[in-house]
């Protein structure tokens, strides 16, 4: 069935499919997306698609409808059931087949969506398949005249845990007390399978799978959603706190004082560990990551490559450069040893290994990787692309005479020199302008934020 191009574009975005269930996304829609994805993958030689889903109420029925679309086009489906997104990527790599993960990640309960990948967890973004799918769903997916595919089930959770433990050996670390906030998301499913049996005392919080998120949104990027974990760390005397988002592909870290650790600092720590194993390797960082990351990489003899924000873009750079690791300030972490895909769990294991391999506190350890003050991501709601573009150009005009450089790799990045810079870009998934700023001091950051927001929110 043909759909309006506008309604399809509203859901099939730059690097995933996402919308409000019942309004923008339903079983008929995802059935057509499944059919179009299957046609595309069949044209590239695939014979099966692995499908997983998160704990949202709508995920089982939507993933089943997607599977119907895939099998109607002659491809088989391997259903792995409840899974984190990185568990789905593991299955795609293990089985060497394309994958589809039903999740809306950190979005509220009324949302759902699909993250698609090719065999070996290779990305599917707007320019690498999503535009083709969008066009085909708009015009109507052609019927397949051959034999329909079949659906089989496979449990890959234990294998996923074993694989990750083979990449980062935690068996010899000192005992650690680890507070974990799963946010009623898929971390409650994967943490016991991966970290159980290690010299870790897990203090669990909100491990019950509940797609209605009764305690707080599963978006640790928002400070309000870290409050419960921070309190738990302090009350329990934990050495470290971990917070996962809804589909558990992102992991945020809290130190023993209950203070958040910047994802850029985690990126720097993991980059240093990976460069120790592979001297001279390439490290990817996105353009809102702290400048501390490329500076560390270059000091350690590695090659730092800057990219735009978004998993499909950074995965493409990982593949093109053969990078050993990539990090984003949103707490997505990508590993060559994990098919170039992102895994918050694997990043958490690197931090646990670094912490457990020495006697100091996490705050002391991470101080080495935190050399600048940062604003974090500050969002401003602007409901039209025209309004977003107008405000961005007004910001550029204000700073042009003071800037050392201005680039438009992703939104606009203004470098003011001496370690001070900011990026302003439009969200790919929400009607927001996102601001990130960095400077040598918190006062410098505050001054930049105040000036930019005065223009954006005028």
TrEMBL record:
Cofactor field: Mg(2+)
Tell me which residues make up the Alpha-D-phosphohexomutase C-terminal domain: 377-453
Q: Which InterPro entries match?
A: A-D-PHexomutase_a/b/a-I, A-D-PHexomutase_a/b/a-I/II/III, A-D-PHexomutase_a/b/a-II, A-D-PHexomutase_a/b/a-III, A-D-PHexomutase_C, A-D-PHexomutase_C_sf, Alpha-D-phosphohexomutase_SF
User: Which keywords annotate this record?
Assistant: Isomerase, Magnesium, Metal-binding, Phosphoprotein
Which residue numbers delimit the Alpha-D-phosphohexomutase alpha/beta/alpha domain?
A: 12-128, 160-258, 265-372
Q: Which family does it belong to?
A: Belongs to the phosphohexose mutase family.
- The name this protein carries in UniProt is Phosphomannomutase/phosphoglucomutase
Q: Which organism is it from?
A: Dietzia aurantiaca
């Amino acid at each position: 069935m043909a759909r309006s191009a506008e309604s399809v574009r509203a859901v099939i975005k730059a690097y995933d499919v996402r919308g409000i269930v019942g309004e923008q996304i339903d079983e008929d829609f995802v059935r057509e997306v499944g059919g179009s994805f299957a046609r595309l993958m069949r044209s590239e030689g695939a014979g099966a698609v692995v499908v997983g889903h998160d704990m949202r109420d709508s995920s089982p029925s939507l993933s089943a409808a997607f599977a119907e679309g895939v099998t109607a086009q002659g491809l088989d489906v391997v259903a792995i059931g409840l899974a984190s997104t990185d568990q789905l990527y593991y299955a795609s790599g293990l089985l060497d087949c394309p994958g589809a993960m039903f999740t809306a990640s950190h979005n509220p309960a009324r949302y759902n969506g699909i993250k698609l990948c090719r065999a070996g967890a290779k990305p599917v973004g707007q320019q690498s398949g999503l535009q083709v799918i969008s066009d085909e769903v708009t015009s109507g997916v052609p019927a397949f005249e051959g034999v329909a595919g079949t659906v089989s089930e496979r449990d890959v959770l234990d294998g996923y845990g074993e694989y990750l433990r083979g990449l980062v050996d935690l068996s010899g670390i000192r005992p650690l007390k680890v507070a974990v906030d799963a946010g009623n998301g898929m971390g409650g499913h994967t943490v016991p399978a991966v970290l159980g049996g290690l010299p870790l005392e897990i203090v669990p919080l909100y491990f019950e799978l509940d797609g209605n998120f009764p305690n707080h949104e599963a978006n640790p990027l928002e400070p309000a959603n870290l409050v419960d974990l921070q309190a738990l760390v302090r009350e329990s005397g934990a050495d470290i706190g971990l917070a996962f988002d809804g589909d558990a592909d992102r992991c945020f870290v809290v130190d023993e004082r209950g203070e958040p650790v910047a994802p850029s600092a985690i990126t720097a720590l993991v980059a240093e560990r990976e460069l120790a194993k592979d001297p001279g390797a390439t490290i990817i960082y996105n353009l809102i990551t702290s400048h501390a990351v490329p500076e560390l990489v270059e000091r350690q003899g590695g090659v730092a490559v800057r990219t735009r924000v978004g998993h499909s873009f950074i995965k493409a750079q990982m593949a093109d450069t053969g990078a050993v690791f990539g990090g984003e300030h949103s707490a997505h972490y990508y590993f060559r040893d994990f098919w170039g895909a992102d895994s918050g769990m694997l990043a958490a294991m690197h931090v646990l290994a670094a912490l457990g391999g020495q006697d100091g506190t996490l705050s002391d350890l991470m101080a080495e990787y935190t050399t600048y003050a940062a604003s974090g991501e500050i969002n401003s709601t602007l409901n039209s692309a025209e309004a977003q573009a107008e405000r961005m150009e007004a910001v550029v005009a204000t700073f042009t005479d003071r800037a050392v450089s201005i680039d438009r790799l992703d939104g606009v990045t203004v470098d003011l020199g001496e370690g001070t810079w900011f990026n302003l870009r439009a969200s790919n998934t929400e009607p927001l302008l996102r601001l990130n700023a960095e400077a040598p001091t918190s006062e410098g950051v505050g001054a930049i934020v105040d000036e930019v927001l005065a223009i954006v929110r005028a």
